[in-house]
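Methods: example folding runs. The two proteins below were folded one after another, and each record is reproduced exactly as written to the output file, sequence line first and structure-token line second.
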Amino acid sequence: MAEAALQTIPRIDPDDLYAAMQRGDHILIVDVRKPESYRERHIAGARHIPGRQLLERLDELPREKTMVFY
């Protein structure tokens, strides 16, 4: 069941994401990695919500933006 749900989530190529950001598209990048990985390196402007907290913190995410999770 979870596998079927994942198939409905669109994927974006890094080059396409970069182009969209350069155009000024309203995109929010959400980093769902562990805090240690985020501290080591992350995409500038990315919002950090560890994957284990994502469901309980969904209300923090703006619905008017396209969200990219990594």
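Second run, written to the same file directly after the first:
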Amino acid sequence: MGAGTRALREAMIDQGKCLLRLTIDSWGPIATGGYPAHLAEEP
């Protein structure tokens, strides 16, 4: 870990923040634009 990365990490900890790393391994119907018709509200 470089000095800049270390300083950034310490600053985030001091501020009560965190960094999340996510790995997407699949897509669901919401992510691809679909929504189940039986769950949609009637107007």
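Comment on the second run: The mean pLDDT is 79.
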